[in-house]
Amino acid sequence: MTVKQYTREEISKWDTKKENVFIIDNVVYNVTEFLDEHPGGHEVLVNLAGKDASEDFDDVGHSLDAKELMKKYVVGELVEADRVQVQKRHVAWEDSKVEGDTGFTSSWKFPVLLGIVVTVLYSYLFG
Ligand code: HEM
């Protein structure tokens, strides 16, 4: 399935009185039908019509449910030339998770395993 491609210019010239479209992370959404259902209100979405709403969307810290729900309103994506690199802010905690984990020998597992091996060996040899 090919997704319809839009330029940023097309989005900014959209007739936002009729339809509410905006961009979040290079994906184009049409939320006209969703305006009155949005738990965060009609107004915030209307103000962002025709714009790139990535930061505003992210600042709110939308739930996973909200991110699932958005998929319903996808109408296309930006043409390659107009895309920006999507920042990995949604998964920032995953990056920090890796930090500080410098391998097996520095984790708690190594000394524990070493202790078990020494105990078993000791009792085998001298027990
Ligand atoms: C397709 C796009 C969007 C969808 C499907 C969506 C959906 C939702 C949902 C389900 C909630 C309830 C709380 C949660 O589950 O996180 C919510 C809250 C909210 N949303 Fe959105 N949203 C969208 C775009 C936006 C944008 C672009 C803004 C811009 C600022 C925004 C601002 C807010 C605010 C202020 C709240 C209220 C947060 C609160 O009361 O704690 N939303 N949205």
From TrEMBL:
It is found in: Membrane. Keywords: Heme, Iron, Membrane, Metal-binding, Transmembrane, Transmembrane helix. The chain crosses the membrane at residues 108-126. Pfam families: Cyt-b5. GO terms for cellular component: membrane. GO terms for molecular function: heme binding; metal ion binding. InterPro entries: Cyt_B5-like_heme/steroid-bd, Cyt_B5-like_heme/steroid_sf, Cyt_B5_heme-BS, Cytochrome_b5. The keyword Heme applies. Its main location: membrane. Belongs to the cytochrome b5 family. This is Cytochrome b5-like.
